[in-house]
Every structure is written in C-alpha cells, then in structure tokens.
C-alpha cells in the first residue's frame, strides 16, 4: 500500500505506525518521507509520519540530521502536543554536535521541562535534549 496524506491522516494505531515505518524502510528514503509529510500543516498527517519514524533505528534516523533545524523549529512552534512530543523524540535520538546547539532551543527546553502546563512526556524529552 502506498503512503499518502489520506492514509497518514487515518493512521491511529501502533500497528499502523509500524506499517508506515516498514514501508519507508523498504523504500530506503527516510529523508524524502520526512520532507513530504513530517512538516504537513495537517497535524494528523505530521503526527502519523513522525510516529512511523520513531520506529526507525538511530542509524536510520541519522539521515534526518540535515533537517535538524527544521525539526527543532517544528518542536518549538507547533501547537499540537503529539507533534511536539514525537518531534522531540526524534531530535533527542539525533546526534547533535556543538555546531548544532541553538540557544533558542535550549531556552525552549528549559522552559518546557519545568512548565506545569506541559505534558509529562514533553517535559521528559526536553531534559535529555539539553544534555544531547
């Protein structure tokens, strides 16, 4: 089955996320998939794409390092908590070098890891992002 926006819009299960991952893996194009769907304005499409990508190994995800700044921007700007949590999960798994550090992202992480209004999953992911 081909991955489409409509299919991603309707992916709501762990099994569906696994299927997405296996299809992207078979294509061998994690970066192309991310460019097409991770930043989609429909949060359901972005969430499903990100959820599928979280099933990838760290080695497979390393292909996404070239879009690290876009992922960081998305994590900081999205209003959807699922998209934020899944994006932070991927960022946390990418190897960050000293040149990748952004003070705005560090400030964001400090703020959100102690915010009582933030969901616990996001608070937890913000703490390792600072150490990364």
Please give a structural write-up.
It is a single chain. The protein is an all-alpha fold and 132 residues long. It is built from 9 helices and no strands. Helix 2 crosses helix 4 and helix 4 packs parallel to helix 7.
Summary keywords:
single chain, 132 residues, mainly alpha
> How helix-rich are the residues, as a percent range?
55-70%
Instruction: Give the overall pLDDT as a whole number.
Output: 92
Q: Beta fraction of the residues? A: under 5%
Unreliably modeled segments:
none
Radius of gyration in whole Å, from Cα?
14 Å
| Main pleated sheet | none
Number of DSSP helices?
A: 9
Quickly describe the structure.
This protein has helices at residues 5-9, 14-27, 30-37, 43-53, 58-61, 68-77, 81-93, 103-113, 120-131. With 132 residues, the chain is mostly helical. The longest helix has 14 residues, at 14-27.
What is the secondary structure topology, with strand pairs?
Blueprint: H1 5-9, H2 14-27, H3 30-37, H4 43-53, H5 58-61, H6 68-77, H7 81-93, H8 103-113, H9 120-131
């Amino acid at each position: 089955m081909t991955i489409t926006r409509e299919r991603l819009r309707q992916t709501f299960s762990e099994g569906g996320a696994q299927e997405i991952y296996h299809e992207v893996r078979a294509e061998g194009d994690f970066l192309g998939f991310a460019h097409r769907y991770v930043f989609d304005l429909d949060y359901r499409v972005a969430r499903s794409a990100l959820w599928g990508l979280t099933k990838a190994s760290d080695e497979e995800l390393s292909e996404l390092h070239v879009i690290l700044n876009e992922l960081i921007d998305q994590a900081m700007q999205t209003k959807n908590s699922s998209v934020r949590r899944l994006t932070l999960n991927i960022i946390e798994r990418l190897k960050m070098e000293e040149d990748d550090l952004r003070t705005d992202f560090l400030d964001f992480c400090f703020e959100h890891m102690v915010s009582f209004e933030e969901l616990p999953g996001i608070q937890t992911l913000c703490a390792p992002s600072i150490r990364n």
